Amino acid sequence: MLLAGYQKEGRPVRDPTQAVVTSLDVLLIQIIKLRWRDDFLTWEPAEYGNISTIRLGSENIWRPRLVNYNRQHAEGWSELPDTNAIVRSDGEVIWTYPITIHSTCVLDIARFPFDVQKCPLKFGSWTYDSLDLKLVNHSKTGNIDFFAANGEWELLSFDLELNEVEHSCCPGVPWDDMTYTITLQRRPTFFLFNLVAPSVTLALLTVWGFWLPPDSGERLSLCLSLLLALTFLQQTVTTYLPDTATNIPLINVFFVANILLVGTSSILTIFTLSIHFNSVNLPPVPNWLRCLFCLGQSDSSTCRVNAPQVNEVDDVDTFFATNGANPTWRLVRRAKKFIRQFNEERGWKTHNLKTEREWKILVGKIDRCLLVVFIIALVVITASVLGPNK
Fold first, then answer.
1. Same domain, 77 and 221
2. In this structure, what DSSP letter does residue 14 have?
3. Is residue 361 part of a domain?
4. Looking at the 3D structure of the chain, how many domains does it have?
5. What is the pLDDT of residues 30-50, one digit of tens each?
6. Which residue range is the domain that position 221 belongs to?
7. Nearest C-alpha neighbor of 94 from the set 149, 141, 160, 25
8. Low-confidence spans in the chain with pLDDT less than 50
9. Whole-angstrom Cα distance, residue 95 to residue 84?
10. How far is Cα 3 from Cα 75, in angstroms, rounded to an integer?
11. Exposure of 192 by Cβ count < 10 A (0-12 exposed, 13-18 middle, 19+ buried)?
């Protein structure tokens, strides 16, 4: 009898100029609760055995059909479930239905794993403006009474904001929407033990690695091992990050900076070992590097060591030419040739040793500069990652 002649396609008001006031309440247990008044679903309880409340299939009555504007669904807009609605004798309708919402959310992972995410759920009518359907909030915030805690995320707040906006399609016509903002903070304990702690340990090992001599083969082995470990950790971090993130986490910047510095240290170590085992025919240190690292001016006269002694021995040729081919002077001539070769070899060896020593001093200074740069970068990035949220 109650639904005789009822038209569910039309708004449930007797006055066409009157808006249907609809109360929206979202519970974080996959439940949406709507309340509104239907002028055509009223009766006198005394005439029907004092029955003041009945339940009707929601598919048989008018429904607000609010939608989530930023919902993401593989098959478009899904149909609302046909759960029963509670109807009171004064026309109040309460419709509660379960639903799982897949909503878009722009993630800010710059401070991963200490990030805080804010994800909005925007609800509104797709066909009725605020002159026909007026949204009101059932409470000041979303309902979290039955929220089940999550192991990875901590719920900080479930705020509610009621807006009245105008769309470009319909200027001058207000539309109501209600936005629930879910604020979540990642629980960092798991990542502290499995990502941050190993990262800091590897960074400290990198610092101590700079104290090894640059010409040490063990330092090269340590650098290569650190590169492998840092690359593995960086790939591990990537598996925990969404593909839709709009920025790069600082912990990845930390890994990349660490990898670059360790790689540069490895190149310096290889160069120093090459100098150590290939000290012959080394080019002199360029003047711009001497000025940059305060090595002083080069001494080009090093290769002319003992030049006076060689000239003095050259006088033997003149004496030999005036005294004939005496066997004794032949021996002296051979000795003179040996002394010349010895002096030349000693001069070049001294020159090579000096050049090698200058290159090693230069590499050592570059190594110390890298150590200072690495420590500064380590302190700045660690403070940015572990510091308080802004």
1. no
2. S
3. yes
4. 2
5. 678 899 999 999 999 998 889
6. 189-390
7. 25
8. 300-313
9. 7
10. 33
11. middle
